[in-house]
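In this section we walk through a basic example: taking a raw amino acid sequence and producing a predicted 3D structure, encoded as discrete structure tokens. The instruction is simple. Fold the sequence below.
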Amino acid sequence: MAIIDTAERFLPQRLRTRLTPWRARLAGTLENDGETARAQGQALTAFAIRIVSAAIAFVSQIILARLMGEFEYGIFAFVWVLVILGGSLSCLGFQSSVIRFLPHHEALGDLAAARGLNVTARLSALISATVLAAIGFLVLELFPHLFETYWLVPLFLALATLPMIALGDVLDGTARANGWTMTALSPTFLARPTLILVFMVAAVWMGAPDTAVTAMQSALAATYLTTLVQYVRLRRRLRHTYGQGKLRLEPAEWLAYTLPIFLIDGIGFLLTNADVVVVGLYLPPDQVGIYFAATKIIVLVQFVAFAVKAAAGPRFSILLATDDRAALADFAGQAARWSFWPALVIGLTLLLLGRQLLALFGEAFTEGYWLLPILFAGILAKALIGPGEVLLSMAGHQKLCVLVYGVVLVASILLNIILIPRYGLTGAAIATAIAMMIETLLLHLALRRTLGIVLFALVRHHPSAHSKAA
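The resulting token sequence is shown next.
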């Protein structure tokens, strides 16, 4: 606040007067010690990181696309999506379950269980990712004829990256569970994309070919470096927080929550990336590149929801533990509004500037402009209920979440398979938007049915008289 106070002195008196109410609200958020204010502060931090991350990612993707052209860029984009998808699935749900259980164990003073969970989560992610990579290597070795030759080396490099992607996701979740937002998000969303770009530009400058292979080599090096540094830093903080001593394992309790979360997150990741994957299976790499560039623009809207989700999870856990249904409904409503209104403003701005933004990737990429409003419609629909899926899963309704996302995933895949061959990239965008709307409707109905919370960003939320126990 000292910086803000100093800056105010240079403003005209009339402007200072108009800004006073907004300054007071910001000061309350930054200086209040209440739990809601703490969650708001975490959301602001996550939001700021996502803004910077979006800028870095956007600039880096433009440079990569211009370096490689749409064909090589499409190869890199498709393979990188597979890397992120495989690495996230390899976490087996532990990247989310640590957010649920670490605050719980710490609140109960059970530090041995917290230490046991940290070790279990990291080892599970590393082992499963290594097994998945080994299977992938075997397939590439035994059945190379199944793939076009330009896929083989990028896929090999992608498989080598998997273990560090998985470990990084678990480390992110561990830091978020402790409220260390900068430690959680900066390696993945700031350091890694920056290093990928730096390594790629340096390699090309030193004479390496400007191809997807060079880009994947850069991604491999950046991922290993950022994840290992994050591990060393986080391990020190965890030792200070939980101490050193015996580990206590509660596999039954953790797995009862983690396995459904694995299905939920797995289906969610598949749902998020199904369009790019199916586009890559049906259309040539240059079309993948155009579609991926369009999604990189419109995805700027979604970092609002990501920031809110990062802060809301621990707060939901605490409110559910205290069984304060009125406070839970109120906070859920706040989270939905935090998601919707910024998403609306950012989305409309992107639609106005969309054609110019796509042209930055190269003239061929402007073909994807009409994908933007279609994708935005789906994202805005999802923003109406904010982090509804987080609330539902943390309330103990993981099986219902699995059912909801299973239905949405099947619908998304079927829609993509039906529409992409007929309508190309437009079909992929329509399929994705419809799937998001189905997801929103089903989550809204599920929350109303199980928790009695009518979650909708445009109205105030109150628990119904027929609220059910979580």
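Looking at the output, two observations stand out. Residues 253-464 form one domain. The chain is about 80% helix and 0% strand. In the next section we compare this with other chains.
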